[in-house]
Amino acid sequence: MSVLLRASGLCQRYTTGKKLFGKPSTVTAVDGIDLEIHAGEIVGVVGESGSGKSTLARMLLGIETPAAGEVEWQGGPMPNPATPEWRALRRDMQLIFQDPLAALDRRMTVANQIAEPLEIHKMLPRDQISGRVAELMEKVGLRPDQADRYPLELSGGQRQRVVIARALAMSPKFLVCDEPVSALDVSIQAQVVNLLYDLQQEEDLTMVFISHDLKVVRNLCDRVVVMYLGRIVEEGPADEIFAKPLHPYTQALVSSVPQAGTGMKGRIVLQGEPPNPAARPSGCAFHPRCRFADAACKSQVPPLMRDNGRLAACLKLRTLPFQDEKQLTHA
Amino acid sequence: MLNHILIRLVRAFLTLMLVMTFAFLVLRLSGDPAIILLGPDAPQDAINAFRERWGLNDPLWKQYLAYIAQVLTLDFGVSMRDQVPALELVISRIPATLAITVPALILKIAIGIPAGVYAALHRQSIADRGVITLSIFGFTVPSFVLGLILVLIFAVSLGWLPSGGQDSWKHAILPIATLSVGGIGIMARFSRSAMIEVLGQPYIRTAMAKGLSWRDVVWKHALPNAAVPIVTLLGFMVGSLIAGAAVVESIFSWPGVGRLIVTSVANRDLAVVQSLLLVIACSMIVANFLVDLGYGLLDPRLRARRAAH
Amino acid sequence: MTVAALSAEVPARRGLLSRARQKMPMLIWLCALWLLAMVLVAIFADLLRPYPITKMDLSARMAEPGTPGHWLGTDDLGRDVLSRLMQSIRVSLVIAFGATILSAVVGTGLGFLAAQFRGWVENAVMALADFQAALPFLIMSLAVLAFFGTSMLLLVCLMGFYGWERYARIARGLAISASAQGYAGAVVQLGAKPSRVYLRHILPNVASTLIVSMTLTFPEIILMESGLSFLGLGVQPPQTSLGNMVGFGREYLTRAPWIMLAPSVVIVLTTLSISLLGDWLRDRLDPTIR
């Protein structure tokens, strides 16, 4: 598989609480991420809120310029935002938003919004646009009579279908879905996820799927990246990560996925406060909440290490008690 | 809180600099100051001497710096008409203006706010409708129309009050009335809507649910919260009072700052206009600064932050 | 999204007129009629007025209202008040209309610029807005007129600066919130140029708010222009405007009050109509601004 997109050493910092006198405080949202996305795969990115998932997504798409590091698209550098090259590149890469209602213009009909990328990039003669829109609507499961509706007249799931149709209008190669179903009713979530999966198969898409919902990631993704406070703590094929999570954080996440018939047994409940990027702990950022942390974890930053074909960032990797899925859920 | 004050001070200073720059630019853009000040018939020698004297042959930035230095030493030049220092002339007119604007402001606050709060607490009553009508009246009847109509009624038809001049307290009644009537309506309307908004908040329902008397709910919860937007409006009121004074003093021949503006603009007495501009800007900035401070004192969040230090 | 909220949004798109017919109180009808009459007078002033505005009739000086041929009376020079009033309505409305458009365009443009470029552009625009708020507009206009002298063009341009900072603040705020997480950001992400984002998406979305602000600014500009003209510093004779007429009529307050009352009534009724109509529109179009 060829590498479609490569990120190396990505960092992003935000300045907050700027005061007239005194130093502005900076928050490191993403802190040194290396990632390769191969053509045709679905990569899941999981982590709690504040772990830098969305920032990473925006940098992968070139919407934000990283403070350090770089993104390569098909071997070439990512153009700066809002330049003509950057705009032209939008034909190849698209974003699906978390809140479809916010991402749609309330004063435009569904059909006009789906047609918009075609107009922007002048991809079709005017008389063929409506045909293409109808085709896209059918593909994402919208009825033809909904073409003249406005976003407020649709349900949440239908709105997300409109956003997906709009993103697919240009037949992009690469699609980033930033929590695409978390704003939807649970009953709708599966439909939209299945739609995304079918489209990925049909259109030969490469996809990055960001979510805090491990069930969805497990069912959908080929490969999983686990993030904690702006860093990758574990990365590997989805089956292996869910079967044998290596990092203590991943273990806690995996154990929190409810399994039928097991009740609450074996759950690892994370202690301490959820991660705050503004007050990053020293050493391994996870140590205040880790069951296995010792003095070394407070001072040393663990690198992402390869072990038996798996990647994880933990100093205790070799000495951790081995836990497979059965032990986690039935211990 | 200190940081808050410092930021306000810096912003106030910047605004003042902008006003000064505005005066400077407008003066330079409007033509050769030598000709404007000396008149188009002035002999060439006099113009040259004037240009030399005021450094008008220097590059513009140098003139700007010289101008700033001049302003900072409170030297605004001499009034063309009266041949006295412009700033002195302006300052001598301030008391007369304060004599009508301060009572007008007090009336707006003392009548407008209670009337608005009363209207909010008794919605759809006659008082409420009265407040709304008066406020629409305040928005739509310009002060020069109101002033002339008051003169027509109380001075011309009834003969109760004098129509102009500054000889006794009676002379001040019509100017103060003209300045305050519309403002009372606006103040009342604004207090009413601020109060209604606060009364609709969940914490008022909570306060009532925990059994506080209606009186306590209004005095301890609603009023302090409604005070914040009302104080903000007061800042705007000061500006409209100064603008209103220009019109009202002209109608009633009241020898204050407002009438001075109109006459010196008509005579193109630039030194006086410039000093007026800066004096008015200063008073506006001070008023807004005080409003900001009041806001800081009233806003519980800012108060809490200060207490934490 | 509840059903109630949905159904509340849907009729917002039906024609303004059809909804206006459905429920428009008597008072609002009267306001609209009065404004329509004013606009017609302004457009057809040349055809409607019985006399030229400078035509003097020295045999009928200070004729009282009701005099045949001079239904609103004449002034000190025997000029027909009704004819002058019609011309004044035209002049005042043209100035106010031009200035309202100018300030809406300037303000919205600057607000969008501030939202698009942020950084120092935004700071500069906001500093200018602060400056505008620091000086009462009447005083600033007086200063400009003192320096430049009075001319019609200058007056319109000057009035065009009235209230621009309100549009700028509204436009900037709405544009920023639309770009940060909203539809505008999504359209940028599709590859649209800023011109498309602002003209096709943000402008239509903020238009109703801006139109409502225009109904607030318009009467204020009429009042501002009349105030300046009343003080003798706005529209200059032989041209006439509403404020200008009141100013001249003031000299004859005791002997011929109708000279001053006729334009006063027009000013009050016009600003009143626009304010009431604006309030009514605001309740229907955009409940978010005061």
General description of the model:
The complex is a heterotrimer of chains A (331), B (309) and C (290). Chain A has 331 residues and is an alpha/beta fold. Chain A has two domains: 3-17 and 26-92 and 172-330, P-loop containing nucleotide triphosphate hydrolases (Rossmann fold, 3-Layer(aba) Sandwich); 103-171, no CATH class. Helices cover 32% and strands 23% of the residues of chain A. Chain A is built from twelve helices and twelve strands. In chain A, the strands form two sheets. In chain A, strands 6-7-8-3-9-10-12-11 form an eight-stranded mixed sheet, with helices on both faces. Chain A has a four-stranded antiparallel sheet with strand order 2-1-4-5. In chain A, strand 11 (305-307) and strand 12 (310-312) form a beta hairpin. In chain A, helix 4 crosses helix 5, helix 4 (110-120) packs parallel to helix 6 and helix 6 runs parallel beside helix 7. By secondary structure, chain B is mainly alpha-helical. Chain B folds into two domains: 2-72, no CATH class; 94-307, MetI-like (MetI-like fold). The longest helix of chain B is centred in the C-terminal third of the chain and has 38 residues, at 214-251. The model of chain B has no long low-confidence stretch (mean pLDDT 79). Chain C has 290 residues and is mainly alpha-helical. In chain C, 71% of the residues lie in helices and 0% in strands. Chain C has 13 helices and no strands. In chain C, helix 5 (81-117) runs antiparallel to helix 6, helix 5 packs antiparallel against helix 11 and helix 5 (81-117) runs parallel beside helix 13. The radius of gyration of chain C is 23 Å and the shape is elongated. Mean pLDDT of chain C is 79; it is low at 1-14. The chains are: A alpha/beta (331), B mainly alpha (309), C mainly alpha (290). Chains in contact: A-B, A-C, B-C. At the B-C interface, helix 1, helix 6, helix 7, helix 10 and helix 11 of B face helix 6, helix 7, helix 11, helix 12 and helix 13 of C. Chain B: It is found in: Cell membrane. Chain B: Residues 94-291 form the ABC transmembrane type-1 domain. Chain B: Its main location: membrane. Chain B: It is a multi-pass membrane protein. Chain B: The chain crosses the membrane at residues 12-31, 98-121, 133-160, 172-190, 230-252, 272-298.
